[in-house]
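Structure in, sequence out. Go:
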């Protein structure tokens, strides 16, 4: 019998043979990897080329996945499926035709915005959320058509709710937590959680310390209790993990993530200026070898075996099956 998949819906690690070994040691079936924060289309293509080299050099451990079937193939072959995603819409520049090109290149998720206002939507750091723009509605329609998933992890409240309503297909929040548990600026309100899951969208719970109650000192018991409370509100079928693991990244990468090209002034984002680098991971989730601890924690707070399997990966796999293909 094939074991239930373990799927992480967001990582941005400093990729290395060590991390790829840890993925296999942890039995990780698939990872959605960030290949863009603020890059242009051409720069994103260069990042894909770098991944192509990794696929060649580590073909015994990795497989580039474009579909749920590819994820199953990776699991059967003892490899980890890598799914490409964009944390901003910058690679499509101002050309809607690039949406389909991105999908053809194997990209399967795109955030309509990072923390700032984009051509498509408002980010969660803007003081005013003006919602989905005219271009945003056209891009949503095109993303629906080609099978590119709308991700609203860094978007503001109004933009997120409008994206859910505007999209003909379910959308995702790949890496965020409920704001009822921790009021991080991009954690999501009850209204968003209910609207998202009512339309069969997916929420990936984040393990990035800025999104956790008590930060790096968050207890696993509290995290799992939060997952249970969310399931009581919206059910367990549309919940998963999106760790936002940034393993082995230098603190200088935070500057690129937050500042991009739009400012010369340090933007410290969540946390204080004194803590502008990457925070330490909680001790119970250091890297890809620790997913089994989360599964144990979910069982301990009362989830059934089927529910645990769903949250740890089966729910995401079902979503991939439905979402990565063109609409009919």
């Amino acid at each position: 019998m094939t074991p239930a998949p373990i799927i992480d819906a967001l990582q941005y690690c400093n990729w290395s043979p060590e991390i790829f070994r840890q993925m296999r040691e942890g039995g990780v079936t698939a990872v959605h990897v960030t290949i863009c924060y603020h890059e242009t289309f051409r720069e994103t293509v260069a990042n894909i080329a770098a991944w192509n080299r990794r696929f060649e050099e580590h073909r015994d451990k990795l497989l580039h996945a474009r579909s749920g079937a590819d994820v199953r193939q990776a699991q059967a072959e003892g490899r980890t499926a890598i799914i490409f995603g964009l944390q901003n819409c910058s690679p499509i520049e101002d050309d809607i035709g690039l949406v389909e090109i991105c999908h053809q290149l194997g990209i399967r998720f795109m955030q309509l915005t990072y923390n700032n206002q984009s051509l498509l939507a408002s980010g969660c750091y803007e003081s005013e959320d003006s919602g989905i723009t005219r271009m945003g509605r056209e891009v949503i329609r095109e993303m629906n058509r080609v099978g590119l998933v709308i991700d609203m992890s860094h978007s503001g409240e109004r933009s997120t709710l409008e994206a859910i309503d505007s999209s003909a297909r379910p959308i995702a929040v790949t890496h965020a937590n409920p704001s009822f548990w921790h009021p991080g600026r991009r954690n999501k309100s009850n209204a968003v959680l209910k609207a998202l899951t009512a339309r069969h969208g997916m929420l990936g719970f984040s393990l990035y310390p800025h999104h956790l109650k008590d930060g790096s000192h968050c207890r696993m018991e509290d995290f799992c209790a939060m997952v249970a409370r969310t399931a009581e509100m919206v059910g367990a079928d549309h919940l998963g993990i999106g760790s936002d693991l940034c393993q082995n990244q230098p603190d200088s990468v935070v500057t690129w993530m937050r500042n991009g090209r739009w400012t010369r002034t340090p933007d410290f984002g969540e946390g204080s200026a004194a803590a502008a680098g990457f925070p330490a991971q909680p001790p119970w989730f250091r890297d890809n070898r620790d997913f089994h601890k989360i599964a144990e924690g979910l069982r301990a707070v009362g989830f059934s075996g089927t529910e645990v399997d769903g949250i740890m990966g089966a729910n995401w796999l079902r979503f991939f099956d439905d979402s990565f293909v063109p609409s009919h």
